[in-house]
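[job 4471] stage=fold_predict status=RUNNING
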Amino acid sequence: MKRLILWMLASMLAAGCGGPKKLRARLAAGEYDRVIEVAVTKIRHGAKKKGEYIRLLEEAYARATDRDLQEIRRLEKESDPAKWKEIYRLYARIMDRQDKVRPLLPLKVAGENRYARFDMTDYTPRLRQARDRMVEYTYRQARSLMERAGDDRGKYREAYGLLEEVVRMSPGYRDAEALMAEARRKGTVRVGVAVVNETNKPLPLSVTRILTDFTRLNGQVFWNRFEPARPGGAYDYNVWVRVTDVWVSPPREDKETVRRERQVNDKTGYVRDQRGQVVKDSTGRPVQQEKLRTVRATVHKYRRYREARMTALAEIRKAGGGTPKVHPLSGKGVFENIYLVVEGDERALDDELARYRKNRRLPFPSEAEMTARAAADLKTELDRLLAQTPFE
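[job 4471] inference complete, writing structure tokens
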């Protein structure tokens, strides 16, 4: 099925590019690889005028290869090590082109009593040479950046990107991975976060743990590292989360009593024919006799509710001074437990009540637990603020 969908998409794409006449115009415009892509699709799927597509493929392939080789020769004459990346890209493109055409070979040119010619020179040694020289140049460029970086995090980050390319192209190259780790460390902004209680009442220990857990946030941002502030810790930025107020409502339980009734089909046995035999349906199953009856229930609906709210101010200050930036934060924690006590037939319940039928009575959370819920909600706001703040 997946192959069929891909075939249909490729056919639609090729059809949208027109026939040989339009492809000939693209060829004249120098869009060689586009012509190759369409012609390969047409030939593979047995399009009409296949011979014309073979000629177009042959010509576009030759022109594209010749163009890329000429560009490679020009770049090699410049003796600029920075050009090895482009040389590598050109060799890779030539070989990718070969991989597209090779499965179709041989291709016979109709009416010319010959096979289409495609240069399949193996450029693997030259590709590897270009890759090796590109990797060496990129590695030296990264080292040079790090040696000149000083306290410039931007240069370390740039070096990290270059080393990442080195490791991707040549795993295990020299000490590239160690240098990557160093560049990551020196390019990262360290942010220490402390929780300050300004509510004039003790906060549960869980609140501090919740507000300073940055496992998820550190996995989302790359060049910032958030952690609980430690005495004497060296941070590039300090953040104080000043908790200004915590309010927890008393437990509350409401009760509502309603009565419900509805008609239900009450199965009272099997339908029998005049001979007393059980009647069966077209599938061979016994037909049950149904009788409508009214069922009733008295429903006691209980709603147990408790709420907590927390407000705070996040003060962000760069190490060494500067004007702090202050942002208000708030969080809310809710406990709601709805359950039923039914007297009578539960089949009388309507859909609105039936969804609570399996609920059970739950104990009210403690004040500390409710405070923690509000803190978790406030932490979501804090994470969003820290993720959007440009720490530089």
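[job 4471] summary: Residues 134 and 289 are 84 Å apart (CA to CA).
[job 4471] exit 0
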